[in-house]
Amino acid sequence: MPVSHNRALFQAMAAIAVAIALPGPAPAAETSPADVRPPNVVVILADDAGYGDYSFVGNTNLSTPAIDSLARDGAVLSQFFVQPVCSPTRAELLTGRYAPRSGVRGVSLGQERMDPAERTLANVFHDAGRATGCFGKWHNGTQWPYHPQARGFDTFYGFTEGHWNSYHDAPMEHDGRFIRGAGFIVDDITSHAIDFVRRSQAAGKPFFCYLALNTPHSPMDVPDDEWNRFRDNPIGLRGPEGDREDLPFTRAALAMMENLDSNVGRMLATLNSLGIADDTIVVFFSDNGPNSSRWCGGLRGRKGGTDDGGVRSVCCVRWPGRIRPGTRIPQIAGAIDLLPTLAGLAGVALGPTQPLDGIDLSPLLLGTATSESVAKQADGRTIVASFGGKVSVRSQTHRLDAEGRLYNMDADPGQTRDLAAVLPEEATRLGAVATAWRRDVLNAVPPPKEERFPVAAAGAPSTELPARDGVPHGGISRSSKAPNCSSFTNWKTTDDSITWTVDVLTAGSYDAVLWYTCPEADAGSTIALTCGPASTQATMQPGWDPPLDTNHDRVPRKGEGFDKEFRPLALGRIELAAGPATLTLRATTIPGGSVADVRRLVLVPSKR
Fold first, then answer.
1. Side-chain-side CA neighbours of residue 279 (13 Å)
2. Residue 387 reports pLDDT greater than 50
3. What is the pLDDT of residue 207?
4. Of 99, 293, 555, 565, most Cβ neighbours within 10 A?
5. Are residues 178 and 262 in the same domain?
6. Contact status, residue 484 vs residue 571, Cβ threshold 8 Å
7. CA 253 to each of CA 50, 89, 166, 235, 247: distance values in angstroms, whole numbers, following the listed order
8. Is 474 left (phi over 0), alpha (psi -120 to 50) or beta?
9. pLDDT in tens, 332-360
10. Mean pLDDT across the stretch 122-135?
């Protein structure tokens, strides 16, 4: 079924949604949680969509009727903040805590991994009897115990490594199996999430569905239907660069947003067709600011920065019959609030979580008797954004940026006039918040002296060691500047090697499988995998040299690699002792001009 089948209907809805004036907080709901069925929850997360990438906020360059309908039919958290890049925001959604507390410091090379001691949103709903499914981009760790199925999710379909290079028939993981998806990646991910919803409903089990879509993150690839609506269109609303804006990139991003919106529409239509829309809480937001300098409602900054443009996101929460249509929440809020808020809305116990940074906003959303006290608590708080050592603090009315400049965000959302000298007390107050946050959050959990990747954690059916987590030596290089989704290439000599620093958690015998490509003329190298005194070796054959997938981009890539089809090669069995170790892959004989390109090493417990 084409994903655009609901677009004509939603186009009409969009015209209404853009025009509506969202009223203030809703009056108290007439029902109580005891009067309704345990609600399902669907959290939809966009990737690199800026605050201005929606028609309901006033962007006339595109139409997002499905997301607009969430704003119209539910609540809008109008001052909602995330972090400047992907992994930290995802960790905050899942834990209700600032990302550095869970050890998430970056987006790759182990810095994206979320401490296994953290109790996640999936744990909370799984323990409350919900079916739990994660679909799309995970980006908080690959190996057990970081894998989504080790963090409370019953099922997973997607990719764990963050940045992905292929958006058509993409390589995916489905509950530990490496497979190929079907069609455009966002359509494919959404189809699997919809199947999960249908199966859960058929089984009579409430569900928590985390739909982590990976667009409009680059590469800028989108199906023809959406691209053809934008490829030659003028762009009326421009970003801060004006005539210097990269318009082909903007057109691709807008086309990707319309595709994403169509998939949101597919999920909403599924809830309607199953008769469970009224029993389902739907949340939509994005993980950071826009990935280019396109229109963002006049906000300063973009992805990677700590100004409002880099960290402000739309956030819509719909629950028909419980959250009044057109509810507007003006208090500042953030991704850290979603865990306690969703638990509060659904009436499920948090369980033994670590102290949360987020607060439960459900009384504001439901308009209950306690909403006034929650509003007062929210009015007096601050929310911190941080990346690359920079720290910025947002209050209800002001932002102290990473350079110590103060802005009145009500009067100056573009952050053009520094008021630090005019309002020294406020600048000092927010500066003290930043200082305390650096001490108590950013620097409270020191980074490890060495990133080690766990092998054979309890419950792990296998351990994937992607190229991202390895280190090339000699002439070997990565296929792209971004380690996520890269492979190792240029392996040509016996002096070259690839290593993975690991921590073997369960001693035992493991079958090693290498995912590779190799030109037919170069097949036949002897390769050895060693770990201390243990080793196994195999012959690199047969040859397998598929072309790079380069046929779909709408905008040329900048520093990103291309995908190709890798195949598994059994390396044999290796005995691993428990404890810190280094896995080393090298060639002992090379009859041709190269050895192989390598995507991943997988270790599977041997069956005796």
1. 20
2. yes
3. 98
4. 99
5. yes
6. no
7. 10, 21, 16, 12, 10
8. left
9. 999 999 999 999 999 999 998 889 999 99
10. 98
Evaluate whether residue 520 is within a structural domain. yes
Q: Which residue has the higher pLDDT, 411 or 26?
A: 411
Query: What angle do helix axes 65-73 and 7-19 make, rounded to 10 degrees?
Result: 50
CATH number, domain with residue 219: 3.40.720.10
Which of 548, 484, 563, 599 has the alpha carbon at shortest distance from 47? 484
To the question of pTM greater than 0.90 for the whole model, the response is yes
Active site residue 531: no
Specify whether 95 is located in the same domain as 192: yes
- Give the separation between CA 540 and CA 293, rounded to whole angstroms: 46
Q: Are strands 207-216 and 280-286 parallel, antiparallel or unpaired?
A: unpaired
How many CB atoms neighbour CB 550 within 10 A?
A: 10
Assigned domain for 25 exists: no
Q: Dihedrals φ, ψ of 275, to 5°?
A: 75, 25
Pick the last residue of a domain from 367, 387, 407: 387
What does the DSSP 8-state code read for residue 279?
G
335 and 293 assigned to the same domain: yes
Beta strand 534-539 pairing with 526-531: antiparallel
User: Of 86, 209, 315, 316, which one is the catalytic site residue?
Assistant: 86
Rounded to the nearest 5 percent, the helix, strand and coil shares of the chain are 25, 25, 45
Q: Are 107 and 48 in contact (CB under 8 A)?
A: no
Q: Does one domain contain both 512 and 535?
A: yes
Residue-range definition of the domain harbouring residue 358: 38-387
DSSP strands (E only) in 127-225 = 131-137, 155-159, 171-174, 177-180, 207-216
Instruction: Read off the pLDDT of each residue in 395-419 and give the average, rounded to a whole number.
Output: 98
Residues 405 and 352 in one domain: no
DSSP 184: B
Strand 131-137 to 155-159 pairing: parallel
pLDDT digits (tens, 9 = 90+) for 142-191: 999 999 999 999 999 999 998 899 999 999 999 999 999 999 999 999 99
Tell me if 595 is assigned to some domain: yes
Report CA torsion sign: 16, 18, 21, 26: positive
One-letter amino acid of 330:
P
Amino acid identity of residue 319, one-letter, is: W
Parallel, antiparallel, or unpaired: how do β-strands 207-216 and 131-137 relate? parallel
**Which tokens in the block code for residue 552?**
């779909």
Q: What is the DSSP letter of 310?
A: H
553 to 74, 185, 549: CA distances (angstroms): 36, 13, 10
User: Residue 557 belongs to a domain with what CATH number?
Assistant: 2.60.120.260
How many domains are contained in the chain? Answer: 3
Pair (353, 402) in one structural domain: no
User: CA–CA separation, 219 vs 291, rounded Å?
Assistant: 11
| CA 120/CA 466 separation, integer angstroms | 24
| pLDDT confidence tier of residue 445, bands split at 50, 70 and 90 | confident
| Domain end call among 387, 407, 430 | 387
Residues 478 and 589 in one domain: yes
Nearest to 267 by CA among 201, 339, 173: 201
Which amino acid makes up residue 44? Answer: I
Tell me, yes or no, whether 29 lies in a domain: no
Residues 225 and 268 occupy one common structural domain: yes
Confidence tier at 551 by pLDDT (50, 70, 90): confident
5, 126, 134, 139: the catalytic one is: 139
> How far apart are alpha carbons 559 and 211 in whole angstroms?
27
Asked about 163 being catalytic, the answer comes back as no
Residue 16: pLDDT above 80?
no
